[in-house]
């Protein structure tokens, strides 16, 4: 990222923090939410810059670096969702806890929809780079299997006990372990031979970005409760989830328009997988997440969409346009359902 662009994002983050904290302490829902969003957008880009610099310092190949950055760039979503959910637990407000997980489901579903659009932007299907088969296939299979187990567990519990179950701790821990193994695999498999340890020039950007994200997420969560009462749970979840992933979605669409469809497409796949393996898993471990019909349906849609992706990679080496249309329809259906919550 160019120095001027980074400075603009940093300034945006600082202004967002000031506005968000003023709104949070002054009781203004609009200022708290808008300021928090600006802070998350600004410091989110600073965090991504730190990740990119770290990948470069440690000699990762371009594809592996892109996968790593897209996987860890979900940090803003994680911090915001946890801030909202923990506030709900502290205040005894289960709606805020459900809002936290709804925003995560929206982010993952929207990423899949954008993936389908990226496929449709070219003349042919989305071809699989050689590195993607080795890196992505094991992960996708693990994600589909683990999420399917959670969906099956919720259905069985609801059918036999007639209650809305909580996400099982063992399943969430399994998702998190999958993610950690995946990140280690990407770093080891994607490193250039003979690459040095690299410097630590990236650390201030990464740590500063994460620190700004924590404060911005806390400021925004202070105004979210008012949003729920004013807009409704589903509409608030859609807004928070879409705003959180919109910047990266736009960047991936621009990359695809400039001829880098494979890079954009598999970056979106990595981001979707990371949303489930890291963001959802951490929330389920730290918060009492309900597996209601909306969440279970969306998890099932995400598992089906990712299964289509991994099946295409394994069998034909590309994701074709028919499969892209199906993925878009599945994703949009889940988003429309969540809007009714």
TrEMBL record:
Highest taxon above the source species: Archaea
Assigned keywords, A-Z: Membrane, Transmembrane, Transmembrane helix
Keyword Transmembrane helix included in the entry's annotation: yes
Residue ranges crossing the lipid bilayer per the database entry: 7-24, 30-51, 63-84, 96-121, 142-163, 169-187, 199-217, 229-254, 266-288, 294-310, 322-339
Protein name, per record: Uncharacterized protein
Source lineage: Archaea, Thermoproteota, Thermoprotei, Desulfurococcales, Pyrodictiaceae
């Amino acid at each position: 990222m160019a120095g001027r662009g980074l400075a603009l994002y940093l300034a945006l983050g600082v202004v967002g923090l000031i506005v968000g904290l003023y709104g949070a302490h002054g009781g203004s829902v609009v200022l708290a939410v808008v300021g928090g969003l600006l802070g998350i957008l600004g410091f989110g880009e600073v965090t991504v810059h730190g990740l990119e610099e770290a990948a470069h310092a440690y000699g990762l190949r371009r594809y592996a670096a892109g996968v790593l950055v897209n996987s860890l760039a979900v940090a803003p979503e994680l911090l915001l969702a946890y801030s909202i959910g923990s506030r709900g637990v502290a205040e005894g407000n289960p709606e805020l806890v459900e809002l936290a997980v709804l925003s995560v489901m929206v982010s993952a579903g929207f990423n899949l929809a954008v993936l389908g659009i990226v496929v449709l932007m070219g003349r042919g299907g989305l071809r699989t780079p050689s590195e993607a088969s080795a890196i992505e296939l094991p992960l996708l299979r693990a994600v589909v299997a683990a999420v399917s187990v959670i969906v099956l567990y919720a259905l069985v519990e609801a059918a036999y006990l007639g209650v809305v179950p909580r996400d099982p701790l063992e399943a969430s821990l399994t998702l998190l372990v999958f993610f950690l193994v995946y990140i280690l695999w990407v770093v080891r498999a994607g490193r250039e031979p003979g690459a040095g340890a690299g410097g630590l020039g990236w650390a201030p950007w990464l740590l500063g970005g994460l620190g700004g994200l924590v404060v911005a997420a806390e400021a925004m969560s202070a105004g979210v409760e008012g949003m729920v009462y004013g807009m409704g749970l589903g509409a608030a979840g859609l807004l928070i989830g879409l705003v959180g992933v919109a910047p990266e979605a736009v960047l991936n669409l621009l990359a695809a328009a400039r001829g880098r469809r494979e890079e954009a497409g598999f970056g979106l796949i990595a981001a979707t997988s990371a949303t489930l393996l890291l963001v959802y898993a951490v929330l389920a471990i730290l918060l009492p997440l309900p597996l209601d019909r909306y969440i279970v349906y969306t998890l099932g849609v995400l598992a089906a969409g990712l299964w289509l992706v991994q099946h295409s990679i394994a069998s034909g080496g590309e994701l074709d346009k028919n499969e892209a249309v199906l993925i878009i329809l599945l994703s949009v259906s889940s988003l429309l359902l969540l809007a009714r919550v």
